[in-house]
Here is the input.
Amino acid sequence: MRRAVCPGSFDPVTNGHLDIIGRTAPLFDEVVVAVMVNKSKKGMFTLEERMEMLTDAAAPHPNVRVDSFDGLLVDYCRTNEVRAIVKGIRAVSDFDYELQMAQMNHALTGVETLFMPTAPEFSFIASSLVKEVATYGGDVAHLLPAPVHRRLLERIAERA
Ligand code: PNS
Here is the structure.
């Protein structure tokens, strides 16, 4: 089985993430969206919430499932027989760090990384920016799936 992984924090999933996931799905038998368990970084959403939102958003793609991972991505890939890591590239600024990680991951276990250019209409979207804009009252409805947008506004209201 040709299995790929789309890894990330997904705090929360955006339309930019979904663009990459949706375009990766037809290229592989199975795509695992792997949510990183980040113990040091306190996210806006819990791991369970992030996974729930992703599962909902990825539902139109029958060969996409959501999982989580702790530790090195290469270990997850080895254990789960993942052939390729797929990463979205929004701009040249993403490329430097992504290239370094891809080369490190390849040097560690030989796993390949494939870079997919983000569609231009999503190239400015980052979860961190979306959260910041929404926190100060900016309209980000068009940048997120509707249920994610609702939950983001609820979380901001809870925190206020
Ligand atoms: O959505 P993000 O925060 O940009 O995703 C980054 C992620 C999770 C893909 C990256 O930090 C990662 O792979 N972390 C797992 C730990 C790891 O393998 N580190 C070594 C990278 S060479």
User: Anything to note?
Assistant: Residues 7-9, 36, 72-73, 101, 104-105 surround 4'-phosphopantetheine (CB under 6 Å).
